[in-house]
């Protein structure tokens, strides 16, 4: 059950973080994209994942794809916003310096903007990793045959097996804390090496 949930969290986070970072860069660099996409992104975030999970399970089935999608959706928004805020807060003088040195748009993005925005991007990834754990549990409640969320349902269904319930909740908490600390360690290493 633990390995199933861990797989869903890691793959869902990878999917959500990739989409969130790309969207955040797009929103930061294009005012038109920001005006057009922001209302839809906020509306999607305002809809509770508990309400969306049964629909996603109905549309995509109860397999791994729907559980990854739920994990990705729940961690996507904070990462997209963190990336957008980070890119927008880059010192304009650095960008102007890149232009004066004839750096291409890709070079300015990859060598100036993203490295300067790393603290905000990685800070949002800290939030995203804990939300991905929540997303995996919710996805397993909506439909799954294994995972820690399924184990909670089994404990609840068998006349409230309290020891199993607490053991599962403790495992979920440990998973969230461990993944959070891994992101913090990566953040320290990347931000230190950038500076």
Concise description?
The protein has 195 residues and is mainly alpha-helical.
Task: Tell me about this structure.
It is a single chain. The protein is mostly helical and 195 residues long. The protein is built from 8 helices and no strands. The protein has helices spanning 2-29, 31-46, 49-60, 64-88, 92-100, 105-142, 148-157, 162-194. The longest helix has 38 residues, at 105-142. It starts with a helix and ends with a helix. The mean pLDDT is 87.
Please describe the biggest sheet, giving its number of strands, its sense, and whether it closes into a barrel: none
The overall pLDDT average reads: 87
The number of helical runs is 8
Radius of gyration: 19 Å
Beta-strand content: under 5%
Task: Return residue spans where pLDDT drops below 50 for at least 5 consecutive residues.
Answer: none
Percent helix range:
over 70%
Name the structural class. Answer: mainly alpha
Please report the total strand number as a whole number: 0
**Shape, please?**
elongated
End-to-end Cα distance: 41 Å
How are helices and strands ordered from N to C?
Answer: HHHHHHHH
């Amino acid at each position: 059950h633990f390995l199933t949930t861990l797989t869903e969290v890691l793959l869902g986070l990878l999917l959500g973080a990739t989409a969130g970072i790309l969207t955040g860069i797009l929103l930061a660099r294009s005012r038109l994209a920001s005006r057009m996409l922001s209302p839809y992104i906020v509306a999607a975030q305002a809809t509770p994942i508990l309400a969306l999970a049964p629909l996603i399970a109905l549309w995509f089935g109860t397999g791994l794809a729907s559980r990854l999608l739920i994990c990705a959706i729940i961690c996507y928004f904070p990462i997209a916003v963190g990336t957008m805020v980070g890119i927008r807060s880059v010192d304009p003088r650095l960008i102007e310096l890149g232009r004066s040195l004839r750096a291409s748009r890709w070079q300015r993005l990859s060598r100036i903007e993203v490295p300067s925005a790393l603290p905000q991007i990685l800070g949002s990834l800290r939030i995203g990793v804990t939300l991905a754990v929540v997303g995996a549990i919710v996805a397993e409640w909506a439909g799954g045959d294994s995972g820690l969320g399924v184990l909670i349902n089994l404990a609840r269904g068998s006349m409230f097996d309290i020891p199993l319930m607490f053991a599962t909740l403790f495992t979920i908490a440990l998973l969230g804390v461990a993944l959070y600390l891994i992101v913090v360690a990566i953040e320290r290493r990347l931000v230190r090496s950038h500076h």
